[in-house]
Automatic annotation (TrEMBL):
Keywords noted in UniProt: ATP-binding, Cell membrane, Membrane, Nucleotide-binding, Translocase, Transport
InterPro entries: ABC_transporter-like_ATP-bd, ECF_ABC_transporter_ATP-bd, P-loop_NTPase
Single annotated GO MF: ATP hydrolysis activity
Protein name according to UniProt: ABC transporter domain-containing protein
GO cellular component: ATP-binding cassette (ABC) transporter complex
Predominant subcellular localization, coarse grouping: membrane
Topology in the lipid bilayer: Peripheral membrane protein
Protein location: Cell membrane
Superkingdom of origin: Bacteria
Organism of this sequence: Levilactobacillus koreensis
Pfam families in UniProt: ABC_tran
Protein family according to the UniProt entry: Belongs to the ABC transporter superfamily.
SUPFAM superfamilies documented for this protein: P-loop containing nucleoside triphosphate hydrolases
């Protein structure tokens, strides 16, 4: 998947949300896009997955083939008083072709971390979960879909670092079969995946591209002063 000389302006906006971006997703790897609020991260992944609408675009997009991708936005779903067990049945029922899923069925079918999380929330109403638990439920369930290409917009927002670590451990175990494009504004996410590819976005432009380990090594140096600007408060 790729953007070539791609620019995008939202409808009725004079300024460009993306400005002459060249970007290529590396397969079977974690691809991070990092940058401050409003830098164009969500617009970039919308463009790559052919989800932009109404605005003005220029350049070329090579999108995901056959729509075979999963895209989890940065927003939490509004699921009210539905029980987590019901949500699980609804989402995983489709994955495992079984509409009567219970915790016993999931044993050995989902990762241990995921199972233990589901046990904890099983009888709770979605409304009664904490913000972080809502986010984790969404991620853990949809990650079971095993799509080739997975786009996660700020998956670590709302989630404590122990759970973020578990999430990235799970993601790293999947890299043989899947490719991840992960948006974040938190440099700590990159520290968890030194093997990743990192693109730094600022004001609609990609200003640096480097491997995760190089990013970690230079994070505090003058070579990436821009990172320091938004990450160290
Ligand atoms: N629907 C829209 N209409 C007009 N302008 C928009 C729209 N969505 C985003 N923008 C503008 O485009 C720019 C890039 O927004 P984008 O959502 O891609 O940023 P982001 O890097 O994902 O930010 P955040 O970290 O806050 O999620 C911003 O200046 C934003 O105000
Ligand atoms: Mg965004």
């Amino acid at each position: 998947m790729e953007l070539k000389d791609y620019s995008y302006a939202y409808q009725h906006e004079a300024s460009l949300a993306l400005n002459q971006v060249n970007y290529k997703v590396r397969e079977n790897a974690v691809n991070f896009v990092i940058g401050p609020n409003g830098s164009g991260k969500s617009t970039l992944i919308d463009a790559l997955t052919l989800n932009t609408r109404l605005g003005k675009a220029a350049g070329r997009v090579v999108g995901p083939t056959n729509n075979n991708y999963l895209y989890i936005t940065q927003y939490l779903p509004l699921l009210g008083t539905v029980r987590c067990s019901e949500i699980t049945r609804f989402i995983l029922g489709n994955v495992f072709l079984n509409s009567h899923i219970d915790l016993g069925f999931l044993e050995n079918r989902v990762d241990e971390r995921v199972l233990s999380f589901l046990k904890h929330v099983w009888h709770k109403k979605y409304n009664d979960l904490s913000g972080g638990e809502e986010k984790l439920l969404q991620l853990y369930l949809f990650l079971q879909s095993q799509k080739e290409f997975v786009v996660l917009d700020e998956p670590s927002a709302y989630i404590d670092r122990r759970n973020v670590k578990q999430l990235f451990d799970l993601i790293e175990e999947r890299l043989k079969q899947q490719t991840f494009l992960i948006v974040t504004h938190d440099v700590r996410d990159i520290r968890l995946v030194p093997d990743s590819f990192v693109s730094v976005l600022n004001q609609g432009k990609i200003v640096s591209e480097l491997r995760g380990q190089d990013f970690i090594d230079r994070e505090f140096s003058q070579e990436l002063p821009f990172i320091y600007d938004f990450s160290e408060y």
